[in-house]
Amino acid sequence: MTEHATASHDIERLAVLLSGGPFAVLTGAGLSTASGIPAYRDRHGQWQHRKPIQHQDFLKSETVRRRYWARSFVGWPRVAQAQPSDGHAALTHLWRAAALGALITQNVDGLHQKAGCDDVIELHGGIDQVRCMACQQVYARALVQQWLAQCNPDFASDTVGAAGPAPDGDAQLEDASYAGFRIPACPACEGILKPDVVFFGDNVPRERVAGAMQAVEQAHGLLVVGSSLTVYSGYRFAEQAHRLGKPVVAINQGVTRADPILRAKIELDCNHALARLCQALSIQP
Ligand SMILES: [Zn+2]
Fold first, then answer.
1. Domain boundary residue among 178, 197, 216?
2. Which of 25, 26, 146, 231 has its CA 20 to 30 Å from the CA of residue 98?
3. Is 44 among the catalytic positions?
């Protein structure tokens, strides 16, 4: 069979599986690349950019926090303005048509919500919120952007545009360019402000994992979209679905950690594959 025929066969196979009952969905960075938010890993599961920030380093080191916030200050507008891709839209159509159940995402960009889906479990949190590590007060990231601008009136004009974005709303700046960057503290208690996302080296909150696991257990199967599942925090859902005898299917260009247990795999661009899946199920946008 040609590659095209193989992909068509796999999409048909996925359509048949989905007609048996709603699937839970797990999405990763591969879905958001078309929205201008780059993926951490390439198709072989290797790091594409510098290593992401570590949770403990952020809490312990003011230099790390200064670097994070300087980069985030530059990278945030692009993330805030990012628009859902055709793939996000297709998943919303499938969800509205009840072909899909709960949508679990490893992404922190809020694009599923922007695409109109309101049954989203953000495993790693959302980049649109900032939390005080001392009093736990939550602030809108857009408000913190104003504080950052007020603390650093001369920073933006020099640096914006020079840096490329990273997946967590962070941007890639040279070390020297943020040495004088000033970071705001929590207005209520002077505590450390941290984006309300799960950094590497931190755990996804237990109740959030339990909610996502329950969604997988209630579903007919699990559809993985745009994730290599390299990190266990995502892989465990595929493992659990498989353990319960439910089909696990992936739309991903490149290897996934779940390859040995997949019932079907579609190695196409997520946007293209999801549009064809809608067609196969006669679901119109
Ligand atoms: Zn506080």
1. 197
2. 231
3. no
| Domain hosting residue 142, numbered range | 48-81+126-197
Q: How far is the CA of 149 from the centre of ligand 1 (A)?
A: 20
Instruction: For residue 131, name the pLDDT band (cuts at 50, 70, 90).
Output: very high
Residues 177 and 221 in one domain: no
CA 153 to centroid of ligand 1, rounded, Å:
24
Residue of 88, 93, 112, 124 marked catalytic: 124
Closest residue by Cα to residue 268 from 6, 90, 1 = 6
Ligand 1 centroid from CA 134, angstroms: 5
Domains held by the chain: number: 2
CA of 265 to the centre of ligand 1 (A): 46
State the Cα angle at 127 between 150 and 55, rounded to 5°: 95
Predicted pLDDT of residue 180: 86
- Whether residue 43 is contained in a domain is answered as no
Please count the helices (runs of H) and the strands (runs of E) in the chain: 10, 11
Residues 94 and 182 in one domain: no
**Residue 91 and residue 25 in contact, taking contact as beta carbons nearer than 8 Å:** yes
Same domain, 105 and 184: no
Instruction: Give me the mean pLDDT over the 33-39 stretch.
Output: 79
